[in-house]
């Protein structure tokens, strides 16, 4: 479904600030795979997401979706296959527009955007139905400006917007990190049920070790721009947070350092 | 002239300039793109229409051609900014300068008079036909801004990264927005040329500030709950601006040439007032809250909902 072959990315090449953000990344995901990603600050996790979604182009290597090489496609073209939720709750929605307008824009993903009305009665029914499944009452507030919503509400809306057109791939970059524990838990629960229900191929960066172990069927660990550990479903079953951290230290030779680290 | 005719005059020119204000609204408010092409494209609309009318084309066709000239000028600014990666202000300034020469080429001389020739106001009075055009333009503009493409355009100014992640080509939406904006500006120029019976090379000087003044006045007086409301406010703001100017000019010691200064002062007041009011409000609120907190002492405040 998703393949990265020998992907490398340098920042500020050939300058004193040269930074190897990704180094020979090799990652193949099967349809329906739910992969959690952990790693220190600066390990290259967000860069990996940006390479997949087309925000950045890899210096070497290629990205394939459904066996089609998409390396040359700009972000807006790749978005027909990819849904994203960012860490910043402000990033995934348009604050000065209403909830239903935001949903209409998400609904238009992968379609030609023309002059037909963005929000129609038929779409509104669909939006209400999807919103009510979030269980936080947003279906009552279709005309509210998104800027009025709390961080948790916005993130729930972003998650819905990223998924309800059934993308081939879902990218989640620490999408609960900016929320307080209760709201983070809500978003995690929603993520879990949406991904399971729609059987989405998902790549989720998280700073929460317990979550990284509990969710998904595969876990990868990144450090210094490489994937240093790849744990499959079998081995993931009897993994603990201590064992995971221990393994990280052993392979990388240093402690996992993440300023947002949550053990569980 | 009866004593209240100046009000009707103001309403008339307010409506004629309202299209220009709507153009400024699209770039400054929707796209968050400070486009200075306006001063040039206003004249482009006037010049194309004026010259076509002197050459015997039908006024309606000449008006549409003026509008189209603005569309092209705006598209050029958009291309400079998106494809040429030139800073937004700079792209507008470059285009404005370039248009000066182009407009002079179109006009052939600094002034073209169409006095006594056919215009769209020959058989119908401006006060009858302009409101109709304004309603049509408002309707079409709003219909566009609520379409799929229109939503993407609005999101481009609101959260560019987000709308790109949903598949909109934001270079394209910006070009469309800036183009449409300057089309409306040029339409204003085309209509003003017909109303005043001439097109002059310096007709557009200061338009951008007048447009901004109209937008700001409209927002301040009538509010801006949503896009429909906002666009209507802008049109009304343009009318109020003309009334204010007309009133100012009735003051004995002010002259017509002082208009630009008056406009600048209106914009300055409108820009300064809200921010000083906000600072003042915040100070007051801070005082009140600290007093409360000191009083309540131990009682903890509760957090909000999800
Ligand atoms: N646009 C950029 N220009 C220069 N360097 C960059 C840029 N983006 C990222 N980097 C560097 O590349 C490295 C990888 O960054 P990345 O954001 O992918 O890390 P991350 O694993 O997401 O870290 P975090 O846990 O802090 O989110 C870091 O050292 C970062 O400083
Ligand atoms: Mg990151």
Description of the structure:
Chain A: It is a peripheral membrane protein. The complex is a heterodimer of chains A (264) and B (306). With 264 residues, chain A is of the alpha/beta class. Chain A has 9 helices and 10 strands. In chain A, helix 5 packs parallel to helix 6. The longest helix of chain A is centred in the last third of the chain and has 18 residues, at 181-198. With 306 residues, chain B is mostly helical. Chain B folds into 2 domains: 5-250, ABC transporter involved in vitamin B12 uptake, BtuC (Orthogonal Bundle), CATH 1.10.3470; 259-306. In chain B, strands 1-2 form a two-stranded antiparallel sheet. The longest helix of chain B has 38 residues, at 259-296. The chains are: A alpha/beta (264), B mainly alpha (306). At the A-B interface, helix 2, helix 3, helix 5 and helix 6 of A face helix 6 and helix 7 of B. The complex binds adenosine-5'-triphosphate and magnesium ion. Residues 45-46, 173 of chain A line the site of magnesium ion (MG).
Features:
heterodimer, A: 264 residues, Rossmann fold, 6-stranded mixed sheet, 4-stranded antiparallel sheet, 23% strand, B: 306 residues, ABC transporter involved in vitamin B12 uptake, BtuC, 2 domains, 11 helices, binds adenosine-5'-triphosphate, binds magnesium ion
Q: Please tell me the overall pLDDT of chain A.
A: 92
Mean pLDDT of chain B: 92
Which spans of chain A have pLDDT < 50 for at least 5 consecutive residues? none
**CA-based gyration radius of chain B:** 22 Å
Strand order of the largest sheet of chain B: 1-2
Number of domains of chain A: 1
Please sum up the structure shown.
Chain A has 264 residues and is an alpha/beta fold. Helices cover 34% and strands 23% of the residues of chain A.
């Amino acid at each position: 479904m998703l393949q990265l072959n020998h992907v490398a990315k340098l920042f500020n090449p050939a300058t004193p600030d040269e930074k190897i953000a990704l180094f020979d990344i090799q990652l193949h995901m099967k349809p329906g795979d739910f992969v959690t990603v952990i790693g220190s600050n600066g390990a290259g996790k967000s860069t990996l997401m940006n390479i997949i979604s087309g925000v950045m182009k890899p210096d070497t290597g290629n990205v394939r979706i459904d066996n089609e090489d998409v390396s040359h496609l700009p972000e807006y073209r790749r978005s027909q296959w990819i849904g994203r939720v960012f860490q910043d709750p402000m990033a995934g929605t348009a604050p000065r527009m209403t909830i239903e307008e935001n949903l209409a824009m998400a609904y238009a993903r992968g379609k030609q955007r023309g002059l037909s009305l963005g929000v129609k009665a038929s779409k509104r029914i669909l939006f209400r139905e999807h919103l009510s499944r979030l269980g936080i009452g947003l279906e009552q507030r279709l005309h509210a400006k998104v800027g009025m919503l709390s961080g948790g509400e916005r993130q729930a809306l972003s998650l819905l917007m990223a998924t309800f057109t059934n993308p081939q791939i879902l990218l989640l970059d620490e999408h609960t990190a900016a929320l307080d524990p209760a709201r983070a838990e809500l978003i995690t629960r929603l993520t879990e049920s949406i991904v399971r229900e729609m059987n989405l191929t998902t790549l989720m960066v998280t700073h929460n070790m317990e979550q990284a172990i509990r969710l998904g069927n595969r876990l990868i660990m990144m450090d210094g721009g490489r994937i240093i550990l790849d744990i499959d479903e079998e081995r993931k079953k009897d993994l603990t947070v201590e064992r995971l951290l221990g393994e990280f230290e052993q392979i990388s030779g240093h402690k996992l350092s993440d300023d947002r680290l949550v053990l569980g | 002239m009866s004593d209240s005719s100046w009000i009707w005059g103001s309403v008339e020119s307010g409506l004629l300039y309202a299209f220009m204000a709507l153009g400024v609204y699209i770039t400054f408010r929707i796209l968050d793109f400070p486009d200075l092409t306006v001063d040039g494209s206003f004249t482009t609309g006037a010049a194309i229409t004026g010259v076509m009318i002197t050459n015997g084309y039908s006024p309606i066709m000449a008006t549409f051609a003026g509008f189209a000239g603005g569309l092209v000028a705006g598209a050029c600014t958009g291309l400079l900014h998106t494809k040429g990666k030139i800073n937004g202000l700079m792209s507008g300034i470059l285009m404005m300068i370039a248009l000066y020469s182009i407009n002079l080429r179109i006009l052939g001389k600094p002034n073209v008079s169409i006095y006594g020739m056919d215009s769209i106001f020959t058989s119908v009075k401006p006060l009858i036909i302009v409101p109709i055009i304004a309603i049509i333009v408002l309707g079409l503009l709003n219909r566009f801004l609520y379409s799929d493409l229109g939503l993407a355009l609005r999101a481009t100014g609101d959260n560019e990264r987000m709308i790109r992640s949903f598949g909109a080509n934001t270079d394209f939406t910006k070009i469309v927005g800036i183009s449409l904006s300057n089309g409306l500006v040029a339409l204003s120029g085309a209509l003003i040329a017909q109303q005043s019976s001439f097109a002059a090379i310096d007709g557009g000087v200061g338009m951008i500030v007048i447009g901004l003044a109209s937008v700001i006045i409209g927002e301040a007086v009538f509010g801006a709950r949503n896009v429909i409301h906002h666009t209507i406010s802008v049109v009304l703001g343009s009318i109020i601006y003309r009334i204010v100017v007309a009133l100012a000019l009735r003051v004995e010691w002010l002259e017509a040439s002082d208009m630009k200064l008056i406009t600048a002062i209106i914009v300055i007041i409108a820009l300064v007032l809200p921010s000083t009011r906000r600072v003042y409000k915040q100070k007051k609120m801070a005082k009140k809250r600290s007093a409360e907190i000191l009083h309540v002492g131990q009682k903890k405040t509760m957090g909000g909902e999800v």
